[in-house]
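Protein details
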Amino acid sequence: MMKRSKLWYRFRQQPLMFIGLAVLVVLALMALLAPWIATYSPTSINPLARMKAPSAQHWFGTDALGRDVYSRVVWGARVSLVVALAVSVVSLSVGTLIGILAGYFRKLDMVLMRIMDGLMAIPNILLAIALMAAFRGGLLTVIIAIVIPEVPRVVRLVRALVLGLRNQPYMEAAYALGTRTHKVLVLHVLPNLFAPLMVQATFIAASAIITEAVLSFLGVGIPPEMPSWGNIMADGRNFLSLAFHIILFPGLFLAMTVLAVNMVGDGLRDMLDPKLAGKL
């Protein structure tokens, strides 16, 4: 009973966060169960069913090649969620390591931060397009292309946090007791980075989903044979006046996913730092 009351209290405090979580859980289940809930093969071509409107047979209609849009949208959820999760984990891992080194070791700070500033000077979409053009397209290449522009943002956040932690009294006490550097980092620095990094992870995930969709829409992201929300919309852009549904449904799922991730991020921010609640 106590757990239920606490959960209800949390829901009343952050209803949008729980709604966002519920949407993400449904999307994750949809991606995992894609082979069973998709009504057709996402790559199955049927010239006789080209650009059909939504119906009982084709829930979201068909595209210019007669492929079922609903099945392609369901399978496309896998790509977006995998990219979001992979980019968040890799960006946070690499960015946290570099940020700690830059914030804690003064000799490395100048070199590392100048490299990060150089990466941030290049627009992330242009950098991702250049990387996709230099290497063979695919899911792994897309993830790497999105990770590289995201790492400097994590590094700057972690570096600022570490610089603030260095002068805390408990850090000075640890130095006075002769605690080794690696223990100080593990026991005192990393735990204090957890909350802001969890919030940052949600924003990275939302940005990664949008960037992947943009790259796929431009034809430099996920290969056409692998359905993603971006290349589904790219396939339908030439038939906008004839079959608006080709772009409508993947666009709705893309917007809904990004909105849900941002709702979770805002809720986490308010829960972990109540002073910010209602200010942004």
In short: The first helix runs from residue 2 to 13. The domain at 28-33+67-274 is CATH 1.10.3720.10 (MetI-like fold). The CA atoms of residues 26 and 205 lie 17 Å apart. The chain is about 75% helix and 0% strand.
